[in-house]
Amino acid sequence: MDQYTLNILVVGATFALYIGIAIWARAGSTSEFYAAGRGVHPVTNGMATAADWMSAASFISMAGLIAFNGYSASAYLMGWTGGYVLLALLLAPYLRKFGKFTVPEFIGDRFYSRTARMVAVVCLIVASVTYVIGQMTGVGVAFSRFLEVDASTGLFIGAAIVFMYAVLGGMKGITYTQVAQYIVLITAYTIPAVFISLHLTGTPIPGLGLFSEHTASGEPLLGRLNEVIQELGFGAYTVQDGSPLAVMNMTLFTLSLMIGTAGLPHVIIRFFTVPRVADARWSAGWALVFIALLYITAPAVGAMARLNIVDTIYPNGTAEAPIAGADRPDWMNNWEVTGLLNWDDKNGDGLIQYYNDKSDGFAATASERGWQGNELTVNNDILVLANPEIAQLPGWVIALVAAGGLAAALSTAAGLLLAISSAISHDVVKATINPNISEKGELLAARISMAVAIAVATYLGLNPPGFAAQTVALAFGLAAATIFPALMMGIFSKRINDKGAVAGMLAGLIFTVVYIFMHKGWFFLPGTNQFPDTIAGSLLGIQSTAIGAVGAVINFAVAYVVASRTADTPQHIKDLVESVRVPRGAGAASAH
Amino acid sequence: MADTSHSSSLTAEGEAYWKANLRLIVGCLIVWGIVSFGFGILLRPLLSGIAVGGTDLGFWFAQQGSILVFLVLIFFYAFRMNSLDRTHGVDEE
Description:
The complex is a heterodimer of chains A (592) and B (93). Chain A is mainly α. In chain A, 68% of the residues lie in helices and 1% in strands.
């Protein structure tokens, strides 16, 4: 059976499974549509949360970022997992106790302010829409590479599948589909990693293999990797840039990712689906267990893939000549077609020179060897997808990785679309436009909003704005600077009032957005930025990706100052805060 | 939905429960910060003498150790809080 048929069979089988779940898990009430009837087991919810959270960025891009940035990419590993500690300790149990359906609803009720609710809706929609564009384009890329249809056809197929289970089943359909998608994506991620780890270190567990001995050289794997890439003029893989500014930026970037993760609405609403407050606490732990299975493997995949690439290009060691272009392996040819891997024979000798041509220290060696610049560029994003081909694994593994990448993108897209559509039907339509809407009417409004959200996401996926790749900083920055502080103050302070919360959210929002625009261009238009987005050139010595943490501090400070100078919160709000702090009385809300 | 109807005045028991919760949160967050921002980033130079598989302990914390500690922290917190709920009589059933 050829590779194409295998890909179609495996991806087709997973899609049939998702559609089967969609038909089985239809939603009959708003409680089922928004919160899966609050009857989801904490372990099940943990697994669904893991799929909800791990997007195309985690599955496809992260290992590549680690491979080419080494130690400094640790910010992603710590930031995207450390946020779950904040979620479990500071937000999830209390918001579950509150027992409503959306994040803006809590902010609106707790700060007794429609303005606060609308500011939260705007932040939620901007953060979620920018995030969903990346998922939709990821679906298109995976389809075009593995199923040989064009990206737009692939996008329509993906959107149709999401439409089936998200519109019919709402949160209920999404939950059980995400469980299936988690199993597909973790299997697809782990199997190639195990083979590669066995091959390089003899250890079947990639996370242990990373710190084991490299069988071929008898040295520790990371020591060997440091050595070979330094011989090509790259910085050591494990080295830390110890300058105070670099250390501060890595710290702030990690913190921004952590509080951004805890403040992303599509993750928070997953914790509304479990029956009890105690379950919300356990469930956050289970979510991190399932996430960690991928996140412990990812740094091993990154380091091993980097070593494999160097060994492929320099089969006789970095001191000898690299391979000839004519002898390059098939996987390089396959990926050159997509433009994500490129070989440019600058000195016309027919060999592939891969080295760091920006290193002054290596320039002399390079010119001595007659090299005229690095000839091989590898996009971060192909690493995981190309991994099974690089390691020469059987065809079914390649097909499984295709299905895994699609599962990661579709599961996150569905979670984001639910957060967007419930904010529209529940926070805008029901709370503002038509408060007397019936249960049936609201369910219909929720389904229509979902369908519209899918259509908008598909359109944006087909015509991605040029800034799509830049907007991840915006999504995390907004969640970190607006939503997380508002939720935390709402639970841990009785004193923060309506005016304090609105002023704090607006200050955090404006500061963060303006800072990002000043460095990445206004509305991401190229050339309109006032400062280069580098550590040295930036306004405050902080890169725009790390600014969310500063925005959060500004939000807290402004809210505190404004609240302490305006009227105290009314008694019924203090009572509300006290009631969310104790678990008793939450169970009644569940409808099984 | 949200149980906003119950009595508003905070009992001594309720106050002790909330204080115990805050102490637990602060303790867990100190550990959370030490393993990630501390061992993984700021204090890494101090740990550079401790070799782990071809690199140093700080690198291990940054790429693996902190995640494992985060897991332990969440389960520890859930376990302690669920028993605090019971001893203070605020558990769900």
